[in-house]
Design brief:
Helix content is 0%, strand content 28%. The protein has no helices and three strands. A three-stranded antiparallel beta sheet has the order 2-1-3, with no helix packed on it. A hairpin with a 5-residue loop joins β1 and β2.
Length: 47
């Protein structure tokens, strides 16, 4: 476990599903596992 690893949480604006990743963007082909929308429907959760 490295110190200072930043985590980014994204929320699906359609169904509310949240995913936490260690990159500031979701993969280009990412799809919501709940409702199936693409990454363009996700917003970064601040805080």
């Amino acid at each position: 476990m490295g110190d200072g690893e930043k985590k980014y949480t994204f929320r699906c604006t359609v169904c509310g599903f949240e995913v936490t990743v260690d990159t500031p963007e979701l993969p280009e082909d990412y799809k919501c596992p709940v409702c199936g929308v693409g990454r363009d429907k996700f917003e970064l959760v601040q805080g």
